[in-house]
Design brief:
Layout lengths: L21 E7 L5 E6 L7 E6 L5 E6 L3 E5 L2 E9 L17 E7 L4 E6 L3
Antiparallel strand pairs: 1-2, 2-3, 3-4, 5-6, 6-7, 7-8
């Protein structure tokens, strides 16, 4: 049985009035959690990372232009977000306990790897 996860031109869930323009990397964890990156969120925030817990709602985890706190007193604007491994390569960005590894690039040129866990 096929079910739509997201579709070009549809409303980008939890991203205001933005719509999906294209999709990049997608992956599914062993427990069924889904994650994918997409472009076209809004004019100001062109790229985002969405996640869905098993049978849950699609959630925008992080998007370009968003302020991200690396540590107390250290907040930077996100320039890019990437899933550093894809299942097509035989690797997955999901850990055994369901955390998702995300590579964040910031407008100052720095990068960081973070684990994202669905709330």
């Amino acid at each position: 049985m096929l079910a739509v996860a997201a579709r070009k031109g549809s409303i980008a869930s939890t991203a205001g009035a933005g719509t999906f323009a294209s999709f990049d990397v997608s992956c599914i964890a062993n427990d069924g959690c889904e994650a994918f990156t997409a472009t076209g969120v809004t004019a100001a925030n062109d790229r985002g990372l969405w996640m869905r817990a098993t049978a849950g709602q699609l959630v925008l985890a992080i998007c370009q232009g968003e302020a991200f706190t690396l540590a107390p007193g250290d907040t930077r604007a996100v320039a890019a977000n990437t899933l550093p491994a894809a299942q097509t390569s035989g690797r997955t960005p999901f850990s055994e306990d369901g955390r998702l590894l995300v590579l964040l690039g910031f407008i100052d040129g720095t990068t960081a790897l973070y684990h994202y866990t669905l709330p």
